[in-house]
Design goal:
Elements lengths: L1 H8 L8 E2 L1 H8 L3 H13 L3 E4 L3 E4 L4 H21 L6 H20 L2 H17 L4 H13 L1 H8 L2 H20 L2 H10 L2 H9 L9
Antiparallel strand pairs: 1-3, 2-3
Length: 208
C-alpha cells in the first residue's frame, strides 16, 4: 500500500487515472493479491474509488468536495492547536526542531520521499501534543483522504520550499506561547495545496 500511496502523493498517478492490476503488478513487482489488498485499503480510506465494470481509479474531487474537505481539515487543525500546551515543553520543541532540520535538508536535496514522510512526522508530533487521541486520529484520516490534493503542493517547487518556512514559524509560536499565531499557521498551512488543486480543475478559477 505504501508504494501506491507514494505514487498518488507524488503525482505519478493522477486523479481519475485508472489503476489496472496487471500494470501495478509489473510496476511494483507485486503479486495480484497484494495489489488487490492495497487497492481495497486505499478504497476504504477514500483515496481510491471503484466503479462497476470500470475497475479502480484515483479519486477525483469535485470543487465543492474539496472545499468541504478542507473546511473540515481546518476545523480539526484549529481544535488541535487550541489544545496544545503553551509555551510548549522543551521536549516537544526539540523533537519538532530535529524533524524540521531533516525536512529542510530533504527539500534542499530534492528527496521527495523523505520530504513527504518528514512532513507527516512533523504534523504527527505537533498535533499529537493536543492530548486528544481521537482528534489526532481524525486529523490523520482527513490528511489521508486529501492525498491526491496534497500532491499538488509537493509537485510545485515554490510551494515545496514554503512548507518548511511555515514549520519554522510554528515552532517559534510554540516556543513563545503565541496561540493566535499558532492557530493561524496550522489553518493557513493547508490552503496552498487546496488552491493548487482547484486551479487545475476545469470550471473553477484561481480565486477558489
Amino acid at each position: 500500500m505504501r508504494l501506491l500511496e507514494e505514487d498518488i502523493i507524488f503525482g505519478r498517478l493522477k486523479p481519475k487515472e485508472r489503476l489496472v492490476e496487471d500494470a501495478l503488478m509489473g510496476r511494483h513487482g507485486a503479486k495480484r493479491h497484494v495489489v488487490r489488498e492495497a487497492l481495497s485499503q486505499l478504497e476504504r480510506l477514500g483515496i481510491v474509488e471503484r466503479q462497476p465494470n470500470k475497475g479502480s481509479a484515483v479519486r477525483d474531487f469535485e470543487p465543492s468536495e474539496v472545499e468541504d474537505l478542507y473546511e473540515m481539515r481546518a476545523l480539526l487543525h484549529r481544535q488541535a492547536a487550541e489544545r496544545i500546551p503553551l509555551p510548549a515543553p522543551k521536549e516537544l520543541i526539540d523533537r519538532l526542531q530535529a524533524i524540521h532540520e531533516s525536512h529542510v535538508k530533504a527539500v534542499r536535496e530534492g528527496d521527495l520521499q523523505a520530504v513527504y514522510h518528514l512532513n507527516n512526522d512533523f504534523h504527527d508530533v505537533l498535533f499529537g501534543a493536543c492530548g486528544n487521541r481521537y482528534l489526532v486520529r481524525s486529523i490523520s484520516e482527513y490528511a489521508w483522504l486529501a492525498h491526491a490534493i496534497r500532491s499538488y503542493r509537493i509537485g510545485d517547487p515554490k510551494l515545496l520550499k514554503q512548507a518548511p518556512k511555515e514549520h519554522a514559524l510554528m515552532i517559534k509560536a510554540l516556543r513563545v506561547g503565541d496561540r493566535k499565531q499558532l492557530i493561524k499557521l496550522c489553518v493557513d498551512h493547508i490552503v496552498p495545496s487546496k488552491e493548487a488543486y482547484l486551479a487545475q480543475t476545469p470550471g473553477t478559477n484561481d480565486d477558489a
